[in-house]
């Protein structure tokens, strides 16, 4: 398993991940004849506007100034890793699930990530299990509308062959340290965080053969 790799357990592992991810994108892109359907779960690392749409929280310039030349709800002056992934696969940028305005398109998937999200506690907006519940509602409603012949939505085949990305957990660790927990106490919480991510993987798969990238 990746988690047991000595290389990725090295103190410089975040930088190694940044170096290795482009190789992953290239590998995936080479296998994709058509732009894939993508579903993303996470926090500020991949939020493309969920915080603004969900809570009305202002994310103003200089965020967005270098690529979009306007604020898009991303906590970045340009694109995020999820944006580069979409571009590398010739897919459209993911629309936030919570954004019902501004021409949101969900034909190529949806983004459930929201700034500040964590795996625990559960049932708190917008924890990972809430994002999973949103996805399950999205899937059920999408299939219902597709079956009824309404609109242009993700098909059942699209759901089966989609790429699912989970990038979350940093806020769990940061919150633990902010509560003055010791290193040993924080370390003991990590298995619980991993368990919630595992539950999300199983919940999104539901007997389907899907590709999941846990960053």
Automatic annotation (TrEMBL):
Keywords: Glycoprotein, Signal. Pfam families: Lipase_GDSL. The keyword Signal applies. One of its GO terms (cellular component) is chloroplast stroma. The keyword Signal applies. Residues 1-30 form the signal peptide. One of its GO terms (molecular function) is hydrolase activity, acting on ester bonds. Belongs to the 'GDSL' lipolytic enzyme family. This is GDSL esterase/lipase. It comes from Salix viminalis (Common osier). The lineage of its organism: Eukaryota, Viridiplantae, Streptophyta, Embryophyta, Tracheophyta.
């Amino acid at each position: 398993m990746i988690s047991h790799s000595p290389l990725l357990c090295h103190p410089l592992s975040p930088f190694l991940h940044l170096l290795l991810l482009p190789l992953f994108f290239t590998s995936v892109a080479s296998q994709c004849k058509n732009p894939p359907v993508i579903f993303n779960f996470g926090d500020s690392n991949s939020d493309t506007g969920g915080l603004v749409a969900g809570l009305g929280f202002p994310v103003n310039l200089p965020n967005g100034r270098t690529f979009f030349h306007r604020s898009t709800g991303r906590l970045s002056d340009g694109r995020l890793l999820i944006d580069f992934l979409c571009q590398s696969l010739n897919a459209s940028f993911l629309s936030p699930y919570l954004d019902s305005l501004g021409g949101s398109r969900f034909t190529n998937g949806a983004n459930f990530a929201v700034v500040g999200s964590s795996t625990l506690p559960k049932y708190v907006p917008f924890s990972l299990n809430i994002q999973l519940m949103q996805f399950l509602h999205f899937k059920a409603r999408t299939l219902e509308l597709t079956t009824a012949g309404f609109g242009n939505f993700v098909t059942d085949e699209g759901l089966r062959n989609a790429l699912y990305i989970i990038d979350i957990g940093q806020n769990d660790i940061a919150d633990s340290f902010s509560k003055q927990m010791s290193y040993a106490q924080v370390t003991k919480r990590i298995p619980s965080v991993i368990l919630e991510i595992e539950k999300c993987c199983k919940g999104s798969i539901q007997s389907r053969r899907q590709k999941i990238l846990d960053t």
